[in-house]
Amino acid sequence: MNDSIVIIPTYNEIENIESIIRSVLSQHKPFNVLIIDDNSPDHTADKVIQLQSEYSGRLFLEKRAKKSGLGTAYVHGFKWALERKYEYIFEMDADFSHNPNDLERLYNACHLGDADLAIGSRYVTGVNVVNWPLSRVLMSYFASVYVKLITGMKIHDATAGFVCYKRNVLEKINLDKIKFVGYAFQIEMKYRTFCKKFQIVEVPIIFTDRIKGQSKMSNSIIVEAVFGVISLRLKKLINTL
């Protein structure tokens, strides 16, 4: 059995799904893929089912009843992966903003290096973002600066969604307590990892904005992140995190 599973949440990703699956599964280091689809109206899940016969034992699908948020999709995937004894569990977007060729670099940071959590970081060596408007780059960059100030984490890209966890990290985090769904989910997972004294390493990547499909970003996700960070810090201070 492969030791690594790449979890990819989807909602209306029919334009990207076949290409991203083929790209991940064609890497030199073997990875398995778990798609968590939120009942996409564009039939993303049907395309995954078609591909499963070609990638038997390597491509898996969990189809949920409705759109329920990124955070709950990943928690669902984490529990699925832990039950099946994967040692390295990845988060990755379906839209090629995360380059599948970087998966092995994240894996090596955990498998060969000292990382318990490896982050594909857009900001650890400057600003490595392609095709984003300046306003969004600034919002994302200063969100991570804000997270540093509030939480004390020395992480340059706290909202990154391209990561690799060792299984023991996810085993030590109470996944049923994860509250947030968007950017704040990514921050919460990193903060809980940080609070458990695990080693976090940032691996520099180049992030490229999606070419096909529509972004899932919304104002509510931004608001959740801003106030969610304060909530996390307060919970830590009063010992309820």
From TrEMBL:
Domain Glycosyltransferase 2-like: from-to ranges: 6-173
GO biological process, one term: glycolipid biosynthetic process
Keyword Manganese: no
This protein's record includes keyword Transmembrane: no
Entry's Gene Ontology molecular function annotations: dolichyl-phosphate beta-D-mannosyltransferase activity
SUPFAM superfamilies assigned: Nucleotide-diphospho-sugar transferases
Keywords associated with the record: Glycosyltransferase, Transferase
Pfam family, one: Glycos_transf_2
GO cellular component, one term: membrane
Protein family (similarity comment): Belongs to the glycosyltransferase 2 family.
The name this protein goes by in its record: Dolichol-phosphate mannosyltransferase
